[in-house]
C-alpha cells in the first residue's frame, strides 16, 4: 500500500501543569528517564515505524527544544528523511499565534506543499508509549478512513479526564464527548476485549494521535472546522466523514502533570516496567559521548542511571539518576528523579567552592532526598534534607515548588548546606 506520510509533532502550549519543569522549556523538551527528552518518544516511534518525514511545531519556550532537535536528528545526504522545526510565526496573512492544536497545523499547511504526502500523522510531544504507526496507517487505508483516532480503553474514574468516544462493531466512531461528566458514563461504554472488560476498561479514550487523509484535512480547514482537534475537529467530523477508532492495547500515559511525570519515571525502575526501554525498538536521542557512570561504595536497588555520573552515595533506591549527576558520600536518594547536569564543573571551581563553603553542582555529603524531582544543574549543599509527602502544602517556594506532595527543586537552584524541606 502507498504510504506517503508526513508526521507532525505538536510542541504543546505553556505546560502550566508541569511547572516549574516548564518554566524555561516547552513540555516536549522536559528530560525523561535520565537521558532522553519527551519529544524523543514520538520521534522514535515514527522512525521505528519507517516514517522519516517529521516536523515539530513549536511556540512557547522553544529554544531548548530547537537545540535538542538540531543536535539529535541527522540523516545522511542521500536520505529523504528529516526532523525539522516549524516555529510559530506572525505574517501578513495572520498576526496571531497558534490558537489551538488544529490551528497550529492549519497555519503550517503552506509549509507542507513542497512535500509529497497522502496522509498526515498528528502526534503529541508529551506522551510515553511505544507504538507501530504502520499498523494504524494500514487500518486507516484498509477501512477507507478519512480520519482515524488512536484510542485506548480506560476505567470510569479516568474517563472524565479524556475525550471519550463510542464506536460501532466496524470501528466507526458514532459519538465523541470531551471530558464527560461521570453521570453519563454508563451510556458511553464501547466494545472492548474480554481482558479489558474484566479490568473495567470499557471506555475508549482518545490518545491525541490522529491520521488524516490529506485531502480531507485540507477540506476541513477550508470549511472552518475549528481551532482544536479534540474540541472541534474530531466532534465535527463524526457523521460527516468516515471517522474510525483504532484501539491500542499497549502502555500509554499522558505526561500532563507533575504527579504523572513522577510516576512514569519511577515506574522505569521496576523489575518489569510498563514502558520497556530495553526493547528492540530503540529510543533515539542526542549522542553526548559521555563516559560510563562510576559508582563507589553505594547500595543501589531498583535504580536507573544515565551516562557520566559520579556516585559515592550511601544508598540509592527506586530512583532515576540523570546524565552527569554527582552525589557525594553519605547521601541517600529514595523515590526520586535527579535529572543531572548539562555540564561538568572544573576542578578549580570545585576546590574554590569547598574552601568558601558554597555548594557544588550535584548533591553534597550526608543529604537525604525522598519523593522529589531535582531539575538540572542544581547545587545541593551538605546535610540537606528534602522529604516530600502529602503533609506538604502545594505551592511555589522560590527555589522549589510542591505539587501533590512531590518536591520539585528548580533548574539551577542553590540549596545551602543544612537546608530542610519537609
UniProtKB/TrEMBL annotation:
<keyword id="KW-0067">ATP-binding</keyword>
<protein>
    <recommendedName>
        <fullName>Glucose-1-phosphate adenylyltransferase</fullName>
        <ecNumber>2.7.7.27</ecNumber>
    </recommendedName>
</protein>
<keyword id="KW-0119">Carbohydrate metabolism</keyword>
<keyword id="KW-0547">Nucleotide-binding</keyword>
<keyword id="KW-0321">Glycogen metabolism</keyword>
<dbReference type="GO" id="GO:0005524">
    <property type="term" value="F:ATP binding"/>
</dbReference>
<dbReference type="InterPro" id="IPR011004">
    <property type="entry name" value="Trimer_LpxA-like_sf"/>
</dbReference>
<dbReference type="InterPro" id="IPR029044">
    <property type="entry name" value="Nucleotide-diphossugar_trans"/>
</dbReference>
<dbReference type="Pfam" id="PF00483">
    <property type="entry name" value="NTP_transferase"/>
</dbReference>
<dbReference type="GO" id="GO:0008878">
    <property type="term" value="F:glucose-1-phosphate adenylyltransferase activity"/>
</dbReference>
<dbReference type="Pfam" id="PF25247">
    <property type="entry name" value="LbH_GLGC"/>
</dbReference>
<keyword id="KW-0808">Transferase</keyword>
<dbReference type="GO" id="GO:0005978">
    <property type="term" value="P:glycogen biosynthetic process"/>
</dbReference>
<feature type="domain" description="Nucleotidyl transferase">
    <location>
        <begin position="7"/>
        <end position="270"/>
    </location>
</feature>
<dbReference type="InterPro" id="IPR005836">
    <property type="entry name" value="ADP_Glu_pyroP_CS"/>
</dbReference>
<comment type="similarity">
    <text>Belongs to the bacterial/plant glucose-1-phosphate adenylyltransferase family.</text>
</comment>
<dbReference type="InterPro" id="IPR005835">
    <property type="entry name" value="NTP_transferase_dom"/>
</dbReference>
<keyword id="KW-0548">Nucleotidyltransferase</keyword>
<dbReference type="InterPro" id="IPR011831">
    <property type="entry name" value="ADP-Glc_PPase"/>
</dbReference>
Amino acid at each position: 500500500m502507498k504510504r506517503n506520510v508526513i508526521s507532525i509533532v505538536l510542541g504543546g502550549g505553556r505546560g502550566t501543569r508541569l511547572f516549574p519543569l516548564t518554566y524555561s522549556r516547552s513540555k516536549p523538551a522536559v528530560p525523561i528517564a535520565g537521558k532522553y527528552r519527551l519529544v524523543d518518544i514520538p520521534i522514535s516511534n515514527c522512525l521505528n515505524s519507517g516514517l522519516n518525514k517529521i516536523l515539530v511545531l513549536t511556540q512557547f519556550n522553544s529554544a531548548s527544544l530547537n537545540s535538542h532537535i538540531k543536535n539529535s536528528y541527522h540523516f545522511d545526504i542521500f536520505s529523504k528523511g528529516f526532523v525539522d522545526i516549524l516555529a510559530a510565526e506572525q505574517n501578513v496573512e495572520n498576526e496571531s499565534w497558534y490558537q489551538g492544536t488544529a490551528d497550529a497545523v492549519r497555519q503550517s499547511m503552506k509549509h507542507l506543499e513542497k512535500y509529497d504526502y497522502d496522509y498526515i500523522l498528528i502526534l503529541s510531544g508529551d506522551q510515553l508509549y511505544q507504538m507501530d504507526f504502520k499498523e494504524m496507517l494500514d487500518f486507516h487505508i484498509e477501512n477507507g478512513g478519512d480520519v482515524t483516532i488512536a484510542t485506548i480503553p480506560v476505567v470510569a474514574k479516568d474517563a472524565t479526564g479524556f475525550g471519550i468516544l463510542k464506536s460501532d462493531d466496524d470501528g466507526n466512531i458514532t459519538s465523541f464527548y470531551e471530558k464527560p461528566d461521570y453521570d453519563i458514563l454508563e451510556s458511553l461504554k464501547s466494545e472492548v476485549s474480554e481482558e479489558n472488560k474484566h479490568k473495567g476498561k470499557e471506555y475508549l479514550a482518545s490518545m491525541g494521535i490522529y491520521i488524516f487523509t490529506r485531502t480531507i484535512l485540507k477540506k476541513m480547514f477550508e470549511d472552518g472546522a475549528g481551532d482544536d482537534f479534540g474540541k472541534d475537529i474530531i466532534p465535527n467530523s463524526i457523521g460527516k466523514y468516515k471517522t474510525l477508532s483504532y484501539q491500542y492495547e499497549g502502555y500509554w500515559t499522558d505526561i500532563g502533570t507533575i504527579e504523572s511525570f513522577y510516576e512514569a519515571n519511577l515506574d522505569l525502575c521496576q523489575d518489569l516496567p510498563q514502558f520497556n526501554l530495553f526493547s528492540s525498538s530503540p529510543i533515539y536521542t542526542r549522542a553526548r559521548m559521555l563516559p560510563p557512570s562510576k559508582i563507589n561504595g553505594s547500595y543501589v536497588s531498583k535504580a536507573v542511571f544515565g551516562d557520566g555520573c559520579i556516585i559515592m552515595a550511601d544508598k540509592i533506591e527506586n530512583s532515576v539518576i540523570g546524565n552527569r549527576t554527582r552525589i557525594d558520600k553519605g547521601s541517600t536518594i529514595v523515590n526520586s528523579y535527579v535529572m543531572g547536569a548539562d555540564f561538568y564543573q572544573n576542578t578549580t571551581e570545585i576546590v574554590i567552592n569547598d574552601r568558601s563553603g558554597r555548594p557544588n553542582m550535584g548533591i553534597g555529603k550526608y543529604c537525604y532526598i525522598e519523593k522529589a524531582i531535582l531539575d538540572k544543574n542544581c547545587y545541593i549543599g551538605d546535610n540537606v534534607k528534602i522529604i516530600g509527602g502529602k503533609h506538604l502544602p502545594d505551592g511555589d517556594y522560590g527555589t522549589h515548588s510542591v505539587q501533590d506532595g512531590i518536591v520539585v527543586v528548580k533548574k539551577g537552584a542553590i540549596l545551602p548546606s543544612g537546608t530542610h524541606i519537609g
